[in-house]
Amino acid sequence: MTSLTTSAHRPDTGDDQDRPAAGRHGKVRKVRRRVTGAGRQHHAGRLAYAILIVAALLSAFPFYWTIVAATRSNAELAQSPPSLLPGPNLMHNFQQVLEQADIGKALLNSFIVSGSVTVGTVLCSTLAGFAFAKLRFRGRNPLLAITVGTMMIPPQLGVIPLFMLIAKLHWINQLQAVILPGLVSAFGVFFMRQYLVQALPDELIEAGRVDGASTARIFWSIVVPIARPGMAVLGMLTFMASWNEFFWPVIALTSQEPTVQVALRQLGGGYVHDQSVIMAGTLLGTLPVLLVFGLLGRQIVGGIMHGAVKG
Question: In which band, very low, low, confident or very high, does the pLDDT at 311 lie, cut at 50, 70 and 90?
């Protein structure tokens, strides 16, 4: 009776891993470790690794082919089957790119345009996203619906009125013609709004109000540090989209003030385009984007993972 009472009131320390216990027939049995759902570890199998490797190779092959084509001649690319190994003509093709287009000025213009658009979009989207996520004002939901609804309008529909506007402002062939229309993004506003709804606790804003901080002070001191990972993700997406933009810059700019995508149109002239020269110019236009991604990659991945955990 004493033993039953002792075992019934014995405190459960939770440490029952591999602990021997007496069975009904006096045999010693082991109590297996209890594994909860939160502590269970899932290991990827061979099939998962095979799928990931194939997906990575398929994703990297276009860039690898660009490198191969940039190091070959146009005649070698026309062979069937073409060679899949790099050749010796990379510097020659780069020289042809510099002779056929002012690629240096185009790279500088693209950095100015993409950097300005990125800074403006991230700042304006974070401000608007904070307002839609945490501030209470009349007409908030209808304004958000209108902002998101503009994403369903094709941008080609606004080209003619936008061109008429910049023509009246005498901005044709000037970089502000492609910078100002991209300073605000409906996608950026919606992205930052969704991020701040999950990442920014209401208690921090209330604490700032109690301390007497204004809305501007709360934004710069509380919102921006919390929103930094999301801002990095939005900044990278905006920079890539602005760098690769071709439709509007080719209309608003001429060959005197080109961006990279407009300058690439001048390569490989003639009836028979030199694909190797075009690929060499494409490689030069892709390297800055890879550089920016390499500099911001860790913070971008951290922002994506943070948003996934919060979600």
Answer: very low
Residue 78, number of CB atoms within 10 A of its CB: 11
Within 8 A by CB and 6+ apart from 44, the residues are 52
DSSP 8-state secondary structure symbol assigned to residue 190? H
Given this model, what pLDDT does residue 309 score? 47
**pTM (2 d.p.):** 0.75
Residue with structure tokens 């060679």? 83
Distance between the two ends of the chain, CA-based, in angstroms? 53
- Residue 181, SS3 per DSSP: helix
Structure tokens at 279: 């690929």
Token pair listed for 287: 């390297």
DSSP 169: T
Sign of the torsion angle spanned by Cα atoms 267, 271, 276, 278:
positive
- Chain-centroid distance of CA 178 in Å reads 21
Number of residues that this document lists for the chain? 311
Question: Which contiguous run of DSSP H or E holds residue 171?
Answer: none
The pLDDT tens digits for 254-274 are 767 788 888 888 786 656 677
Rounded (to 5) percent helix, strand, coil in the chain: 70, 5, 30
The pLDDT value given to residue 1 = 44
Residue with tokens 């709004």: 193
Other Cβ atoms closer than 10 A to 81: 5
Helices 224-243 and 275-310, packing angle to 10 deg: 160
Are the C-beta atoms of residues 141 and 207 closer than 8 Å to each other?
Answer: no
CA gap 88, 80 in Å, rounded: 19
pLDDT digits (tens, 9 = 90+) for 28-80: 444 444 444 444 556 778 898 999 999 999 999 999 999 999 998 888 888 88
